[in-house]
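Design review, sub-item: ligand-bound model
Attendees: FS, YL, KQ
YL presented the inputs for the glycyl-adenosine-5'-phosphate complex:
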Amino acid sequence: MRQIVSLSKRRGFIFPSSEIYGGFSGFWDFGPLGVMLKNNLKKKWWHDIVEINDNIHGLDSTIILNPKIWQASGHTGPGFSDSLRECKVCHRRFRGDDLKENKCPDCGGQLTEEKKFNILVKTFIGPVEDKSTLSYLRGETCQGIFVNFSNVVDVVRPKIPFGIAQVGKAFRNEITPGNFSFRSREFEQMELEFFVLASEDEKWFEYWKERRMAWHLSLGIKKEKLRFYEHPREKLAHYSKRTVDIEYQFPFGWGEIEGIANRQDFDLKNHSKHSGKDLSFMDDKNQKFFPFVIEPSLGLDRLVLTVLIDAFDQQKERLILKLKPQLAPYKVAVFPLLANKPKLINRARKIYDDLRKDLSVAWDDRGNIGKRYYSQDEVGTPWCVTIDFESLDDNKVTVRDRDTTRQERVKISDLKKYFQKKLEGK
Ligand code: GAP
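KQ shared the predicted structure:
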């Protein structure tokens, strides 16, 4: 973990938020490479969930919603609370769920009684700060989907089953943020609400459970590091009939990266009751009913951390991020062999500018070639291109592969096709 934290800071994946003011617990910023990796993951999720399924539609709702929504959804109540206990001796705070014994894990001191603590982040909308203006930053993105259910149905006229998907920020006043960015107070979720017939809920639950696991494997995450975890009945969230998490084996233990929940008709029914607007669905036979909801919900920031940890490899001095090329921030790095030879620089620059029209490409002319290779390995760049004196005569360049370190000469005119084929896995 220490190496991941250090690499993230040193190479610009993840920075502590507000660092010059001493940081801010539970908040993290994405640097130049972090935002590229995050965007690649987001794009892939959106493509695989929304773009290739003609029965799944996108949405982008607001972060601050009418506070009545959070009452109807049950989030202002005990269902969205953490239990807090404090050590009377060293004053460290713990989540009740994380404690195995009835004493402080750090100093053995006596603990206070459990206190329930609602984790919705509060704010005030309007000039006065009182009960009437109390509002919340959304604790999960899906509520924006449920309250827009009729809007979307009216526009797309879907047949059941169908889905609505959204990517966006969520906020939770976590009692114990930690394990680097694993548990944060501000994070992004990628959520799909898939509406099905109540009689088919189990079939669709199994479908999404398997499909989501296959998706994580398609990112190149190691199979042996992934597993399902079935929530015991007594620990299910207030809306859930069944929840299965996809967990990853982090250096600090197994942790949830995605949850697949059967939310039944809890949300549509409750919003109908509290808003007075009928959110039932009418099928082709004019029959009205509340569909059940199968929800795969994934944390994007947590996925970035997972992918970084899973791709990390060390071979003696050499640190390598073995990211799948499709996810790597840079696909290619271009180097002139020497930095002080204008002819080489000009040729290399032309190749760089040309490749950049279609691919994400890095430029490096510092230090020697060996150092540049190491530097690109560390950020997961799959291929490096070196332009040398021979290139000026034979119009070929050396392409070096990150994982095999093998090098081959490739015609400059073929380079773009060569990388595109590789990116398609050919
Ligand atoms: N709408 C359902 C829902 O929000 P959840 O299990 O509370 O379910 C879903 O959250 C996903 O969001 C988790 O699997 C995790 O990846 C991410 N997530 C939840 N809390 C988080 C936090 N404090 N920091 C980072 N990611 C978080």
